[in-house]
């Protein structure tokens, strides 16, 4: 179970983007978090994935309260999460070939190398695996970023606007990779987005930001996006 | 009536090191009239943006273009020299609404300063920034803001206002809605449509099928550098639907439809297979697909169903 209790978070303590928000995901459950640009949903997703320290509130991952964030999180908690961001170009080291990009979490944790199955699952050929990010399309790079997120077999996946830059067919392909993985491994999912049709089709349940955080309206100054 | 833009057999090749050649655009033909919106759709990497660069004369040095793209029945955009393009075409006869507008604007200058320079260069007038901003519904009280102080939607309007200053009859929008949320996509699309209804011709390059459906009169589907289907938007998105199997697959991948991806990935543009480039992913491929299907003006497929006369 993934529990977010009374989370307040942001980039300026005087003006938090997220105020006192709680959300609970059951083990293996997929939840879509729906809201407009700049509402704070990406910040909440980063808190859930232990990538951003909240100003207040607690995160409980499968019964253990999170005490550290980012590199200070204990490895067992950190590696329980696989994260995919909106913009693959900004999430990929331009120097790494896709093969090494996908294997980076394995290398970093000393896990045995082996990305063959992952590459097959996301549909990347040997030819593409040998290329660097500037030599592939956004869709191909996002496939590699998803494979990287699955490399350590996480119990939780956080997909923050994973498909916002992609065409319809690539979107459907990546969602089916995530769902195949979840079916086999029983992993839970927090999918953040602004497309109600997509999230409704993808997730067990969809939570609207306005219901989750009635007090905090769009701020227009979020870290990940800007609203009107 | 002469179409405003008449593209005939446009082909763009990139010469790469080692004798490699990238077939970015192959034998593309279409027409665009005043007061009409044509949406050019396809997966990323299919050659859409190269086509836009060719129409603006902004291809890099290693590109070789052939065919023609006649603007207003006269000037060939693929053959015009840089002086002509810079002094009489860009901004004046072809306006660009860019992808990611906040990156397109100069970060250290206000919107007013952008508009002032554009007005001076394109019209010779001083002043008039408020009126120019109003044409794209950009609020006058935000004119003195810098790009980073604008939301995605307002940055989009600022970029559109700049594209409209020169009163160019042809507007070219390159992925104008990427990364915007649904409400903003609809607002941006509706604003572009308003300019079409005011007499501009709009070529909208996009992979956002919802935006295309919302405002396009016609749809051109591009796959591996070729246009494979050119259809009336209402018939394409409604009934009887697309005729090319790639276009059918693209619509079927939408979450409101069957949400199933087209198997495989598009071929690399430097290693296109002989014959139909879609055959390897196509459910109805046969031996006939070993030959490249000719584009008959509406579809390029050996197995397309007959156009029904509805």
UniProtKB/TrEMBL annotation, chain A:
Protein name in the entry: ABC transporter
Gene Ontology molecular functions: ATP binding; ATP hydrolysis activity
What InterPro entries does the record point to? Answer: AAA+_ATPase, ABC_transp_ATP-bind, ABC_transporter-like_ATP-bd, P-loop_NTPase
User: Could you say which protein family the record assigns here?
Assistant: Belongs to the ABC transporter superfamily.
**SUPFAM superfamilies according to UniProt:** P-loop containing nucleoside triphosphate hydrolases (SSF52540)
**Gene Ontology biological process terms, A to Z:** transmembrane transport
Q: Which UniProt keywords apply?
A: ATP-binding, Nucleotide-binding, Transport
- Per the database record, which ranges form the ABC transporter domain? 2-228
């Amino acid at each position: 179970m993934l529990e977010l209790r009374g989370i307040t978070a942001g980039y300026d303590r005087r003006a938090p983007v997220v105020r006192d928000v709680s959300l609970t995901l059951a083990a293996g459950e997929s939840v879509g978090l729906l809201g407009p640009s700049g509402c704070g949903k990406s910040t909440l997703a980063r808190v859930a994935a232990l990538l951003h320290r909240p100003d207040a509130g607690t995160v409980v991952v499968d019964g253990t309260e999170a005490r550290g964030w980012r590199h200070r999180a204990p490895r067992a908690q950190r590696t329980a999460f696989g994260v995919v961001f909106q913009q693959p170009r900004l999430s990929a080291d331009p120097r790494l070939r896709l093969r090494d990009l996908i294997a980076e979490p394995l290398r970093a944790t000393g896990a045995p190398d082996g990305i063959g199955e992952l590459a097959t699952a996301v549909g990347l050929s040997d030819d593409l695996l040998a290329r660097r990010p500037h030599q592939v399309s956004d869709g191909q790079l996002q496939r590699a970023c998803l494979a990287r997120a699955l490399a350590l077999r996480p119990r939780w996946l956080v997909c923050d606007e994973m498909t916002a830059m992609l065409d319809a067919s690539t979107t459907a392909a990546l969602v089916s990779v995530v769902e195949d993985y979840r079916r086999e491994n029983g992993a839970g999912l927090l999918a953040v987005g602004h497309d109600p049709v997509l999230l409704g089709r993808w997730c067990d349940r969809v939570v609207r930001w306005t219901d989750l955080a009635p007090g905090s309206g769009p701020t227009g100054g979020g870290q990940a996006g800007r609203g009107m | 009536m002469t179409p405003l833009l008449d593209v005939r057999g446009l082909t763009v090749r990139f010469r790469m090191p080692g004798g490699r050649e990238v077939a970015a655009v192959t034998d593309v033909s279409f027409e665009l009239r005043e007061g009409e919106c044509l949406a050019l759709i396809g997966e990323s990497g299919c050659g859409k943006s190269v086509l836009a660069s060719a129409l603006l004369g902004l291809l890099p040095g290693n590109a070789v273009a052939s065919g023609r793209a006649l603007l207003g029945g006269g000037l060939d955009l693929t053959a015009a020299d840089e002086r002509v393009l810079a002094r009489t075409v860009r901004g004046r006869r072809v306006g660009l609404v860019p992808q990611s507008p906040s990156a397109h604007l100069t970060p250290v200058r206000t919107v007013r300063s952008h508009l002032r320079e554009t007005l001076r260069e394109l019209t010779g007038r001083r002043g008039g920034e408020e009126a120019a901003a109003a044409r794209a519904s950009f609020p006058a009280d935000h004119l003195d803001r810098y790009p980073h102080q604008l939301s995605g939607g307002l940055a989009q309007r600022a970029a559109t206002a700049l594209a409209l200053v020169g009163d160019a009859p042809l507007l070219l929008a390159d992925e104008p809605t990427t990364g915007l949320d649904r409400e903003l996509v609809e607002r941006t699309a509706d604003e572009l449509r308003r300019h079409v209804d005011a007499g501009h011709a709009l070529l909208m390059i996009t992979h956002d099928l919802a935006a295309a459906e919302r405002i396009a009169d016609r749809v051109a589907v591009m796959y591996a550098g070729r246009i494979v289907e050119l259809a009336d938007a209402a018939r394409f998105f409604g009934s009887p639907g697309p005729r090319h199997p790639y276009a059918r697959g693209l619509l079927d991948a939408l979450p409101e439809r069957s949400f199933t991806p087209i198997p495989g990935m598009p071929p690399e543009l430097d290693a296109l297979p002989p014959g139909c480039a879609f055959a390897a992913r196509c459910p109805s491929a046969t031996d006939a697909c070993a030959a490249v299907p000719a584009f008959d003006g509406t579809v390029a497929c050996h197995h397309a169903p007959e156009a029904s006369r509805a």
